[in-house]
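FAQ: What does a multi-protein file look like?

Like this. Sequence, then tokens, then the next protein.
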Amino acid sequence: MYEYRRGEFLPGSFELPQEGQLEIHLNGAPYLSLACSPGGEVALGLGHLWLSGVFGALEEVRYRLDLEARRLHVDLPYPPPPLRPHRYAGCAAGIGHYGSRPLQPLPPGEALDPELPLRMVAQLQEAASGYRRTRGIHGAALFDLQGRLLHVAEDIGRHNAVDRLAGWLLLEGRMGEPCLIAITGRVSEEMAAKAVALKAPLLASRTGAMDRAVALARHYRLTLACYVRQTGYRLYAAPERLVGAAPLVLP
């Protein structure tokens, strides 16, 4: 390995992101395969299935991880739903199919501190050790409504990182609790839908948002803050949740 710097090549050694695969079997039959980072397979698999609408509560399922085969076995008390074709914008799980949970508009709730997106993204960047080591991993983080960090997940897939957050909530018995989400990657329509499904009133991203993501966020009243930097951000949807707490009057 070499590094090109100031007009010359220098020998170097760089840690590379690891790419693995997780097979998910439902009721004894192959269901889908995820390209993912190794580790935390149970949270990833369960979170992905929950966000896909495969099951509603963790108590409904039994699961077992075969780590050697990199296979998660999940038993449902009913037939699994059929996989449906899904449009990907890139950097998704790479399975070609995806379901979704039914979505409901988020309640208005109390006004949130407009500084929250700044603090959330800063904490995510500080905690994302995998990205600092490899520069090739996406990160996602959960926070409470005061901006206290609850959990960080990293994966080669930006969608997988959010699936891991959902899995953590399931395994910790905290699914449905109020939470906020910060991510490092761009916000696609699917990513915004995941935040709504997790009932997170605020999604903050270091990068940008796609047009369909903004439309979905506006429809479901998801406050969407993007291009978050140390000094500010762009607010695309549901501004009342943050602006209501700031000395700003919208026309």
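And here is the next protein:
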Amino acid sequence: MSPRLIVLNGPPAVGKSTLAGRYADEHPPALALDIDKVRALIGGWRENPSAAGLAARELAIAAARAHLEAGLDVVIPQLLGRWEFLDRLAALAQETGASFHEIVLWDSKDEILRRFAERTPAPEHPDTTPAEIAALYDRLASRLETRSRADVVPVSAGRVDDAYRAFLSRLD
């Protein structure tokens, strides 16, 4: 079986990292490659988050390539509203003989805002506001209308097992 390159897209607090981590744990030695955590490893990232984000994406591409070339799965939990990076990941999958899965975890805006308010602040997102989350949600919603390749998986708070099963079903 060929390796999988899985992108878990979706708004903040929807469960991308949770499902990516679970997938990696249950499919060792799959790599859960969180680009935001890679960005936080780059010195000075808070002063120039855009430049650090671009560098983190390049590092992620290199790490994903190495893992895929070794025949191993990679899952990337990341809010991606710029299709160019998704297209690069799709091309990487093709170059390495991996299958490509673009999955979007989705819940209502009100539920996303509630989840975001309740979760512990992440060091890689220290100053994100509810207004910014709402804007990100709206931007992603409008862009999804033009993204036929994306497989949308509805999720509900507290139903991680259901979300995980639905996510896995999209990989078959």
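Q: Is there any per-entry metadata?
A: Some entries carry free-text notes. For the entry above: The longest helix spans residues 49-69.
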